[in-house]
Each structure stands twice: as structure tokens, then as C-alpha cells.
From TrEMBL:
Keywords associated with the record: Oxidoreductase
Keyword Oxidoreductase: yes
GO molecular function: alcohol dehydrogenase (NAD+) activity
InterPro entries: ADH-like_N (IPR013154), ER (IPR020843), GroES-like_sf (IPR011032), NAD(P)-bd_dom_sf (IPR036291), YIM1/Zinc_Alcohol_DH_Fams (IPR050700)
Record's protein name: Alcohol dehydrogenase
Lineage: Bacteria, Pseudomonadati, Pseudomonadota, Betaproteobacteria, Burkholderiales
UniProt-listed SUPFAM superfamilies: GroES-like (SSF50129), NAD(P)-binding Rossmann-fold domains (SSF51735)
Pfam families named among the record's database cross-references: ADH_N, ADH_zinc_N_2
């Protein structure tokens, strides 16, 4: 089959279209014909080698963390899916590879595609949807009436998280450029901060939750907008010891992670708030809940642009540029 290969780590490395072996299907896996694949900044970060310490992928490697397609074959112990089913997934860590014609996905990571969506729309959801869900529902346990600050509201995670937070009954503040202010308000944002001119520390006070996805300077400011007992959840780091423990990392990696996050954890304790690093995990059950919300009209996918499969490297470059409003998707010509 055809797939885009990453042959070496590095920012200047380009994905190369190549013939690769068909996926080998385990008993608990489902073989999926890829119709569409989402493109995420995580793909670029893995290519750059930023996650080698905690996700030691061996190259050559096929990237791609979002997939929508049809079931071609099921493993011997698979019970919830049948040939011909339309499905979507975020494949598990060390099992990625959606920039290809076919992919094997663990049944526990897979869910039926939202019935109201196209394949391209469905492929835009798994990673950002699970990230927002695990942050706001799982860690934060966001409740009606609480206040949440979602950074980068026009991005993939942000545009989904705004809609989910509003569905949960929260007051939502977000940051974006002035050009996108009206657009994120349409998604449900109650307060929009122009990140180019507004200081979040001067505008926001006594928030219950911050979903952080930006740089370290914004991380420090975000601590100041939380009330005592509030929660700062970061998807951009630094990783914390709890994450290293869940990962089962070697002691040296655990030590490095502890040192990397020591400063922010110390500041959080001083302000009497909690700090969590979230590295989203694959979860088919949560995708089923997300599909229900989508089909009910509570959340809609936000797609910036769809690229054909042969322009996969250009799609990744577009995501890296930071100009995408919503998600970037690759469409296969099946």
C-alpha cells in the first residue's frame, strides 16, 4: 500500500510517498480503509523529535493521529465492528499511521463515525475532541456556571473545547486574533481576548479552569487568572511526574520530567491551584459520547482546509504555519 514515510527525525525532514507493507492485524484490531486523516501539530512535533524521550518511535515511521474510514477486516476477538462499518478513531500511541491507505486500529480506540458527518468532517474530530473531553470532562469535571479560559480558541482543540464547555454550561473566555473574534463568539465564547494587545492577567480574574496550549510566558500568566482551588490543565507542557508515572517511564525520564515541571508546580502550590499536564489517550468509548453530541447538534466540526492525499507534506506545513482556523484534513481518493 502507499503511505507517507518519515525516514529520520528533524525539522527539515520531508515526508516521502512510498510503498510499505500492509498492516499486520492483531486479534483485537480492526483493519480500516482510510478515507480521510486529520493533521495535527503533534505530527510535526513527533517529526521534529520533540517526543523521543517519552514516545520512542523507530523510523521509518508513518505519522497521522486521526482517521475516518470503513472496516475491511476484523481480528479474531473483535466483537463490536463488522466489515463495511463506517468508523473513526485516534489510534493509540505507538500505533499511529493514518497517512496511509490502510491502518490497523485497536477495537478499544475505535468508534462508529458520527452519522451526520462526512468522512472528512469525522477525521477532524478524534484528537481534538478527546483532548477537550479529557481536559474538561475528565480532569476539570466542568460544571454549569463555572468559568473556563480556553487559549487559542480558533485552533483545532480550542474550537472544539469552546463548544464542549458551552454544552457543559460554563462561561467561556478565549484568546484569538481580532480577525477571528466574531467567529469564536459564534462557536460559543462569551468573552474574547485579543492576544496581540490584551493582557490576560489584567482582564481575567477568579477562573475555575484554564486550558493551556501556548508558551511558558502564557503559562505563568494563566496561573494568575485562577481562583484558589482552580485548575490549570496544559496540553503543551511541561509534563508532570504523574504523567511520567502513567507512562511507566524509566527513572531517568521521571527525574527529567520532575525537574522540567518543578517551577510551574511550585508556583501552582503557592497560588493554591492544581497543575495537570494532559497527553491525550485513545478512547473509543469517549469517541462514542462525542459522536452522540455531534449527531445531536451540540458540537460541529471546524475544518480550515482539505488537502488531497498527494499533498500530505503541504498539509503538514500548513498546520505548522499556525494559520489554520480549525482542523486540516487529508482526503483519500478511494
Amino acid at each position: 500500500m502507499q503511505a507517507y514515510l518519515l525516514e529520520a527525525y528533524g525539522k527539515q525532514q520531508q515526508l516521502r510517498l512510498a510503498r510499505v507493507a500492509e498492516p499486520v492485524l492483531a486479534d483485537d484490531e480492526v483493519l480500516v480503509q482510510v478515507h480521510a486523516a486529520g493533521v495535527n501539530l503533534l505530527d510535526a512535533k513527533i517529526r521534529n523529535g520533540e517526543f523521543k524521550l517519552i514516545l520512542p518511535y523507530k523510523v521509518p515511521l508513518v505519522l497521522g493521529h486521526d482517521v475516518a474510514g470503513t472496516v475491511l477486516q476484523v481480528g479474531a476477538t473483535v466483537t463490536g465492528f463488522a466489515v463495511g462499518d463506517e468508523v473513526y478513531a485516534r489510534p493509540g500511541d505507538m500505533r499511529i499511521g493514518a497517512f496511509a491507505e490502510r491502518i490497523a486500529v485497536k477495537q478499544d480506540a475505535l468508534a462508529s463515525k458520527p452519522a451526520t458527518l462526512t468522512m472528512e468532517q469525522a477525521a477532524s474530530l478524534p484528537l481534538v475532541g478527546l483532548t477537550a473531553w479529557q481536559a474538561l470532562v475528565g480532569l476539570a469535571r466542568l460544571r454549569p456556571g463555572q468559568k473556563v479560559f480556553i487559549q487559542a480558541g480558533s485552533g483545532g482543540v480550542g474550537s472544539f473545547a469552546i463548544q464542549l464547555a458551552k454544552h457543559l454550561g460554563a462561561f467561556v473566555a478565549t484568546s484569538t486574533s481580532a480577525a477571528n473574534a466574531a467567529w469564536v463568539k459564534e462557536l460559543g465564547a462569551d468573552l474574547v481576548i485579543d492576544y496581540k494587545k490584551d493582557d490576560i492577567a489584567a482582564v481575567l480574574r477568579d477562573y475555575d479552569v484554564v486550558l493551556h496550549s501556548q508558551d511558558s510566558a502564557t503559562l505563568r500568566k494563566s496561573l494568575g487568572v485562577l481562583k484558589p482551588g482552580g485548575r490549570l490543565i496544559s496540553i503543551s507542557g511541561p509534563p508532570d511526574p504523574a504523567f511520567a508515572h502513567k507512562l511507566g517511564a524509566p527513572w531517568l525520564v521521571k527525574l527529567v520530567v520532575r525537574l522540567l515541571s518543578a517551577g510551574v508546580r511550585r508556583q501552582a502550590r503557592r497560588r493554591q491551584v492544581d497543575y495537570d499536564f494532559l497527553f491525550m489517550r485513545a478512547d473509543g468509548a469517549q469517541l462514542r459520547q462525542i459522536a452522540e453530541l455531534v449527531d445531536a447538534g451540540a458540537i460541529r466540526p471546524v475544518i480550515d482546509r482539505v488537502f488531497p492525499f498527494e499533498l500530505t507534506p503541504q498539509a503538514l506545513a500548513h498546520v505548522e504555519s499556525g494559520r489554520a482556523k480549525g482542523k486540516v484534513v487529508i482526503a483519500m481518493q478511494n
